[in-house]
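Ligand-bound model needed. zinc ion.
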Amino acid sequence: MNFPSKLVENAVTQLSSLPGIGKKSALRLVLHMLNQEKQNINQFGNSFIDLINNINYCSECYSISDQEICEICSDHKRDRSTICVVEDIRVMMAVENTLQFKGIYHVLGGLISPMDGIGPSDIKVEELVQKVQNGEVKEIIFALSTTMEGDTTNFYLFRRLKDINIKISSIARGIAIGDELEYTDEITLGTAISSRLPYENSLSK
Ligand SMILES: [Zn+2]
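Prediction:
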């Protein structure tokens, strides 16, 4: 693509580096922005600069939070003995929207994926094991996608946690194989959490 302006080209290159955005869509967005008030574009740009400079992760569950400890972890009404393990904040938000879960979360920040070179040490596995070893936890619920990476991660976590005296459950699989949890509707996901099963049941004997 030949650009009449280096400035436009730079903006298109940046936008098209985002997932799902090709050069043509990026150009359309850049031209759209040029038609906006300068003040609006400044606000747009500043929101990302603010985000990246000030983003904070909850020191307990590793969710994104504006405080040192997120609202859920600091809510005394939540049951701290039940931890729902999720891939990222999108799934955490989806589970939270079901209103079916009153425990706390642990955000892994990804899934184990040998194909992509992501191993257990690249996500928050050790932090989870430590949390469980500290004793307050009675139940761990795996709420990971039913993809190959989700299954691999479930199994790895199970192996790491099975000798500790806690209940390990997995959300009920009314959800089709390969489903990404964040796209599952709230009722299905809510039911899947309330009717969770011991993880061992899902292992083929
Ligand atoms: Zn938290």
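The mean pLDDT is 89.
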